[in-house]
Each structure stands twice: as structure tokens, then as C-alpha cells.
Amino acid sequence: MTSFEIVRLDFTKEAVRAWAPRDHRNTNWPVVYVLDDAKVGGKLANRGALNDVYVGESRNAAARMRQHFDSSEKEHLSTVRVIVDATFNKSVCLDLESYLIRMLAGDGFYRVLNRNDGITEADYYERDRYRETFREVFDQLRRDGVFTRSIPEIENSDLFKLSPFKALSQDQAIAVDGILEGLFEDLEAGTDSTIVVQGDPGTGKTVVAIYLLKLLVDIANSAPDEDVDSDTLFSEYFVDGYRELLMNIRIGLVVPQQSLRESIKKVFRKTPGLRPEMVMTAFEVGFAAEDFDLLIVDESHRLNQRANQPSGVQNRNFSLITQKLFGSDDKTKTQLDWITKKSKHQIFLMDAAQSVRPADVPPELLNSLVIEAQLTRRHYPLMSQMRVQAGSDYVAYVRRVLGTTTAISRPQVVAPELFEGYDLRLFDSLVEMRAEIRRRDAEVGLSRLLAGYAWAWKTKADKTAFDIELDGCQLRWNSTQTDWIASPKSVDEVGSIHTVQGYDLNYAGVIIGPDLRYDAEEHKLVIDRGSYFDKKGKENNDVLGKKYTDDDLLRFITNIYAVLLTRGIRGTYVYVCDPALRAYLRAFIPNAVEANLAPLGR
Question: What sequence ranges are listed for the domain GIY-YIG (predicted)?
């Protein structure tokens, strides 16, 4: 039975003054409130394309409202909804506040005015029971027009997944706190610095990058006399001294992958203090007229070394930028060097095992960055698995099975494992796997087919053709490079590594193509170079005189499949083209028929 009530009133001094004495809980009880401007004069507000919202919690709601009347950024808000429950305490209210902030940011109808000062996944007594109440609060607010989409729709959206208003895991919070402490030390000392954040797939590197950027902007923009909630994780940085160190700071976020970059820009358009122009390519950094105080680089392993770029223009620009920054066309310089040259401070977020093309910066350069950061105590590992419900053990298991933790990608002696609650299955029929992905998408959304680049992209020139014709299925590659996962056709298409790296899915159906095979006599994985169709993924680097062997290509291809196999939050389905590889993987991945009979993942 619902124990809470939501009281709605006009956000005016007169309305609050009349409301305050009606109930002692209005002045002496922990509550959560939502302020918005969705209705002005009975009509939808037109503040560009967005309305504004602010979520807060307080033990004295009436007094807190009076403080908000003095805030210029909230003076246009028109409605307040106060959520009151006889069982609420401070911990519950902090959790509900952060929950509503996250959901409102993910809904996308509002521009969330809250600053980012430390939302964390704090535990407290009977939290699971209160979380049920939160969902009821959400439903009532949605009926009242505050939310425009359902919880699953919000949680499956890029706006939610890439929002700066995320609850940090413990090791993410430790990393952010350490980064802030070290960065402020270096800013105060006037010394340059390089920080490295290292983590496997699903540990939340992109979340940390976006969170940090928003947090630094909020600290820089905070007012000297602003009321600071001492209960928030990073409240100690919203004080005199830190604010001044960030005065007029020039910050940029570098994202190498086009699809992920455009998705983050979409989030920044809806976030106060952040602008889509902050999200850049390495080329844009290189050509920038001014240097940066701080550059945060997500997916640093996808930055480029000197190599044949996708276009003649980019080849010319690589040379021009290198000459501009270093005085000559030094072909040993990489985009890592550009970033370092153009900024006093850098934060590199990376996972060398996600390097998937010869043009990517070499692993040895990334490793040297890690070693340097460890020596200067500016290295922060992320360990907790935020994506895959099977936990970090699953990611390590996939990498061991594919041998991506060894120098030449040779499978190791791996003991088969089961992951309770995670739906991992090997399909003998692509028709059946495709049907299961469709069923999962109808059930929970965000379920897609993915594949290695083992088929030519025929539909790039002929939209009536099919790219993948296999096992009774006719399939097409992704029809867009940007935000493919959320595009209308995506459930009927197949995504490549270039559309999914950095994203997550509820269920991933991975087709391992004929580019990866298993040599049963030699007991090792091998590649079929002729079945790998990413031209940039296998071409030699004539500029640097590098020739890529089959062992080199094997590393890239197994890295690609390791990335694809770790996209699924709830489950991963696998179909394998090579019979020998299918037989090898059968020892490590439950067969679809057997899995249907067992409780695994059900």
C-alpha cells in the first residue's frame, strides 16, 4: 500500500507561506521535492526545446523553498511537488533525490539544473523496499506529466547511460576523488600532469570521463556564498580555493569514435554548463587556435598513430597538425603527442586490449603512459563491472577463452565456468539466435545482432542487397554510423565494432564470422585474412614501414570479438561460422538447447 503523498503547489512566496504551517512535516521532516517550469500560464513553457527541472531534498522544505526564491537560475520555475512519506529518513531522501535526477536526465524532456557534486550508490536499511516505493513515486509523477517515458525506455536510452548524473560505484568514486585531489595539487603547483584511468570493458570509463567534466564545470561555476550540502561526496571541493583554481579553465573531452562522440554531444546539449563543442576529435584539438588547460580523452586506445587515414584530407591534416605542433612532419608523432602538446593536463581513460585496428596507437605507448602514471601516483584502476551482470569474472573469462591476454592471442588452459543469472548461450542456428534477439528486444528492448567484419559492405552502394547471407538468414550491416543502437532499423540489422564500442546492450547476439577459426591440430586460434573485410583493419603501415603479420591481425580480430562479447548486460548469444571454432567454444559456452533446460540465466 502506498505510504507516500505528493503535494503540488505553485512555486511562489505566497503559496509556500500558506502551505508551510499546514503540516509539521513541511518544516521538520526529511522530504524530496521537484521544481519545474513545465507549465507557465497553463501552457507548455518554451525555453528553446527544453524545460528546466531541479530536484532537492531537505529536512525543512519550507525554509529551503525560501532559499530557492533568491536563486536567479530558479526564479523562472513555476511548480513544486513535495514527496512526503512517514517512513522517510535522510538516507532514503538522498537516494530518491539521486534516482529522480538520473531519471529526469535520461527522460530528456527537461534540462536538469542540479549540479553534480557526488551521487553515489549508498546502502542503507531496507533499501530494496524503498526502491519499490521509488518506482511508485516515478509512476505518480509520470501521470502528473513530470516524466514523458517509462522506466525501461529511459534506462535503455543514451541520455540515461551517458548522463553526468550517474551514481558512482565505490572504485569510480575513489578514482574521481583521487583525480580531483591530484589535479588540484598540480594546478596549484603550476606543474603539468598526466593521469591514467585504466579499466576493462564495462567498468564505466566513459561514465567517469563525463562525470568528471560536469563536476569540474560545476565547481568552477559555483558561487562563493552558495549553500553546500555537506552530505554529498565531493562537497569539500565546492569551497574557496578550488573554485579559483578552475577560473576560466579551458576543458575538452576527446572521443575518437564517431558514433559515441555524437551520442555524448546529444547529452551535453541538454546539460547546463556543458556544450557539444566541448566534445572533439583529436584533429579538432590539433587545429584548435588555443591550448587547453585540461583534456580528458575517452577510449584513448582508439587514438591514431601515423598511418593511412580513412581519407586523403585526414592524411594531409595529420601532417599539417604535426608540423604545426612540432615544427616538422615527424612521422613518429601520434595523436597522443598532439593531446600532450595541446594541454597542460591530460586524463587518459584506456584499455589497451580494446585496440582493434593497426592505425590505433601501439600498446607499448599506452603501457608506457600507465607506467609513468603509476610512478607519479596518477594511476587509477577501475575494477567493478558496471555493465555485465555476470560481473568482472565474465570479461576476464572471455579474454582467456580468446587468448587476448597473451602476446599472440593463443587460447590458454581455461576451465569452463557458469555465470549464474547471466544468459550466455551458443546457438547452432542463426535463425534461432536472431529470433531470440527479437524476442528479447520486444521484452526488454536494446537487444541487437553484432558481428565481426567478416562480410563485405555491399549495401553501402546497393541498398537492395544483403551483406550477410548465412544459415538461411539474409542480413544487412548497420545503415548508419551514428547512434546505430537507438536507430529505428537497428533491430533488423547487424552492428559492427565501429558502432558498438563504448555502448552497452541488454542482450547481444554475436556472429563470429569465418575471419576467426580454430586449428584443432595446433590447438590455437587462427585467422582467415581473406574473410576479413575491414580494409583499414588489416592494411600495412607504409608510412612507418610496418608490416602486419597474421599474428598481429589475430590480436586485432580477437580483441574485436572480446569487445562484442562483452556488450550484453543481461546476456550474450553466440553463433560461430567455423565448425572447429564452434566445437572449441562449446566447451566454454552452454549450448542453447541445454541452456533452455537449465536455470542458467532464467
Answer: 28-115
